[in-house]
Amino acid sequence: MASSTVDTTGASGAPNRPARDPISERIRDAFVHVSDTATAAEAIAAVSRSRVPTGQAAVVFVIDDKGHYKGFARLSALLRAEGATQVTTLSDGAGLAVRHDTEQEAAARVLQNKDVPLLPVVNDRSEMIGVLTFDDAMDILEQETTDDIMFKAGVGDVFNSDDHIRSEKLTQGPIWYTVRVRILFLLVTLAGGLIVGGLIDTFEDVLGAVLALAIFIPLVMDMGGNVGTQSSTIFARGFALGHVTVQDFWRKNFTREAMVGLVMAVGVALVAGTVAYFWQGVPNDIPQLGVVVGVALFTSVFLAACLGFLLPYVMVKLGVDHAPGADPFITTIKDFTGLLVYFSMASWLIGVDM
């Protein structure tokens, strides 16, 4: 009977990008194995005869007479056992193997989450064909992290999904190629900036009547921007590492980030509102300015924290690369909303007509 394999469906939490190469391209075919009828003494002898690197001799894989993977026995357990002990009584991990066509990152995460130095890989007939070492798995995950950072920075290839961008091409390739990759979402930011500029122009009379309001505009915009960047970065990292999942997003991930955003928003609002009250409010006989700044910052920070998780999630659900596309939209929405609340509160509390 063929051995079972690990279900790697959904094992990778990486952003929705082109499929990686199969793990069969990264496996090593040198590993120690014995028959499922072998004894501990025979398994130790097999290790002694093998020429595999020391790290790959830490476990002995058990296969049947048809080459099907049945499990593995740790060398430490074999050395402690009686020589006549059947190796099958010392073996573990009968369902640990992954298929040869498993995505590299998914296989690497299986090994990352298991307390074993090697991951067995089998073919379509459940015959063991090689192993993924822990070092190779870490190399794969390191490359995935690098790729995620590139996408987060807005330099992922959104035009050709079959050509995954490498840093050499971005730093040494044609200039127009780099511009083409990066400019799309910069245009989104440009459009958002013009929209926010139009909002400020709408409240020109309010700003002219209370010049102190201008002092806190950068604070409202920058604080929300920083919080939004934090949240979207945490989402990207957590999604890449599997800590943020589509299945648990609303029940666990988003709820937690919203609570974090709420606490941060209250704290920032209280501090900034107090400073605004004593610094510009009281001296200029507009004590309401403290409330205006506090409420605006509360709105901006809380909204940015929520959007930093919500927009990337929506893009994942739509099958769009969330990393390069989320931040421009987060910036535009939180800036527009934060300043709208800021000027509207100022107009209402301070009593300035638009």
Question: Could you walk me through the main structural features you see in this protein, from its secondary elements to its overall organization?
Answer:
This protein has 2 domains: 23-146, CBS-domain (Roll); 167-350, SLC41 divalent cation transporters, integral membrane domain (Tetracycline Repressor, domain 2, Orthogonal Bundle), CATH 1.10.357. The chain has 11 helices and 6 strands. The protein has helices at 40-49, 75-80, 104-113, 134-152, 167-172, 175-202, 204-209, 217-241, 249-281, 288-317, 322-350, and strands spanning 33-35, 59-63, 69-74, 98-99, 118-122, 128-133. The strands form 2 sheets. It has a 3-stranded mixed β-sheet. A 3-stranded mixed β-sheet has the order 4-5-6. A hairpin with a 5-residue loop joins strand 2 and strand 3. The radius of gyration is 29 Å and the shape is elongated. The protein starts with 32 loop residues before the first strand and ends with a helix. The model is unreliable at 7-19 and 157-166 (pLDDT under 50).
Average pLDDT for all residues: 80
The major beta sheet can be summarized as: 3 strands, mixed
Percent helix among the residues? 55-70%
Radius of gyration: 29 Å
Written as H for each helix and E for each strand, in order along the chain, the element string is EHEEHEHEEHHHHHHHH
Number of helices: 11
Question: In a nutshell, what does this entry contain?
Answer:
The protein is built from eleven helices and six strands.
List the main descriptive attributes of the protein structure presented here.
single chain; 354 residues; mainly alpha; CBS-domain; Tetracycline Repressor, domain 2; 2 domains; three-stranded mixed β-sheet; 6 strands; 8% strand; elongated
